[in-house]
Design a protein that fits this description.
The protein has helices at residues 16-28, 51-61, 76-83, 100-109, 125-135, 154-163, 185-197, 221-224, 236-239, 259-273, 280-291, 293-318, 354-363, 369-381, 407-424; strands spanning 35-36, 94-97, 116-121, 141-145, 151-152, 167-173, 201-205, 230-235, 248-253, 323-325, 333-338, 383-384, 386-387, 397-401. By secondary structure, it is α/β, with parallel strands linked by helices.
Length: 425
């Protein structure tokens, strides 16, 4: 090319949760059955789609209006339904998006280049990748402490906010991904107070809020935000076992409290208008799905399944001093951190096939410890997990799912991972 066309921070747009799939596909060629623990897909893990849900979607597909363009913000009846039980917003404060990345990319790209976001460490890679690529600079993070139930380090958070005037918002993921902490009301109110003190706005990623294990622990941004400008991200395809729905919305709070924030929100809407509208079917059926009495029954059933597996998994690893585990309080994942001081950092697991061994070891030259472990685990056992370092984490560990429908198979997967950790030390 006559000129380098690659954005200097393009490599920040990296989604290793799916990248490892290509490695697993190579491992599969060596007659190794892959156990997919890298990503959420309940259908692939044999979770049955409820008949009541199928019926609502099927009936909607018979309607001609399902096949039309929707308004940019999306159908008024759906936004009215969502705003009905939330006194802090009106229907016009809701904007629909096609998938999480659609919302994240527009939210970050609409910021000025020198406006920065401070986000948790570890953090979900879609957020961290988008922020770094937007800013063309290193990440700015605040630590979540595994020794304190993954709660934020407030001293670090305030110091970074205080001494970095380019920080304009605080990102909170609650329930958090990948730690699966559910933050208490006191923690969240301290973040809101900090935002108010330093004239920041907040974004709460609340896409797993309907899968908090105990309702008493479920605190939404709408309940604590006061008069601080903010955005909540919500997601339909997590509330239901419907991954391809890829549909969600943002809720805008206190737009009228700050002119600059109001203009920023309008720019997000203008960017959304460029693509005309969001996909019609999922949002069209949302009010009927969410208001069905079967929805709550199904939600509680899923929670009990994930909660049981979270307890089992936490117990399995609790007596292993090589790792630390904080029992998840929501959703369908588990994250384990390695106590690195107890490991030989150059250790490995056996890979019988020399060609496969060479392939794997070429991929992990100079890699962090957790990536080495996950790649060896994949090649040795076929279990595909995600290194915690891929979540821009300063902690080494791995994330796996709590989705396996066969309880005995799930227990066996845990046993194999535990034994592999012992061998790796």
């Amino acid at each position: 090319m006559r000129k380098n066309i690659l954005h200097p921070w393009a490599w920040e747009l990296n989604y290793e949760i799916r990248n490892i799939v290509w490695v697993a596909k190579e491992v599969e060629k060596y007659n190794k059955e892959i156990i997919w623990e890298n990503i959420w897909d309940p259908v692939a893990k044999w979770e049955k789609i409820p008949s009541w849900m199928k019926k609502i979607v099927k009936n909607a597909c018979e309607l001609d209006e399902i096949y039309w363009y929707s308004p940019t913000k999306w159908l008024l009846k759906t936004r009215e339904y969502l705003a009905k039980n939330n006194p802090k917003i009106e229907p016009e404060d809701i904007i629909f998006f096609n998938w999480l990345w659609d919302a994240i990319s527009k939210i970050y790209k609409s910021l000025s280049f020198d406006a920065r976001i401070i986000w948790p460490n570890p953090a979900y890679s879609s957020h961290s990748s988008a922020e770094a690529a937007h800013a063309g600079s290193e990440h700015i993070t605040y630590k979540l402490d595994p020794k304190n139930n993954w709660n934020p380090d407030f001293e670090e958070l305030e110091n970074k906010v205080k001494y970095n005037p380019n920080i304009v918002w605080i990102l909170v993921v609650n329930p958090d991904n990948p730690t699966w902490a559910v933050f208490g009301k006191d923690i969240l109110e301290k973040i809101i107070d900090l935002a108010k003190q330093y004239n920041l706005f907040v974004i709460f990623d609340e896409i797993y809020e309907k899968l908090v294990f105990e309702d008493k622990n479920r605190v939404l941004l709408s309940e604590i935000i006061g008069d601080v400008p903010g955005i909540s991200m919500r997601w339909m395809s997590k509330d239901l076992p419907w991954p391809w729905a890829r549909s969600g919305w943002i809720e805008i709070y206190n737009k009228d409290k700050d002119k600059n924030f109001s203009d920023y929100v309008d720019s997000i809407f203008n960017a959304k208008m460029m693509e005309v509208c969001s996909t019609t079917l999922p949002q069209f059926v949302l009010p009927e799905l969410y208001s069905s009495k079967e929805f709550e029954i199904s939600r509680l059933k899923r929670i009990e399944k994930y909660k049981l597996r979270a307890k089992i998994a936490s117990k399995v690893f609790s007596d292993l001093d090589l790792v630390s585990v904080v029992e998840p309080l929501g959703a369908f994942y588990l994250s384990i951190t390695f106590n690195l001081e107890k490991f030989n950092l150059n250790w490995s697991l056996e890979i019988e096939n020399e060609k496969l061994k060479k392939y794997i070891e070429n991929l992990i030259v100079w890699a962090r410890f957790d990536k080495r472990f996950c790649y060896y685990l994949l090649a040795n056992t076929g279990i595909c997990t995600v290194p915690l370092s891929w979540f821009n984490s300063s902690y080494d560990g791995f994330r796996m799912t709590l989705l396996e429908d066969d309880l005995e198979k799930f227990k066996n997967i845990l046993k194999i991972i535990k034994e592999s950790i012992k061998k790796f030390s």
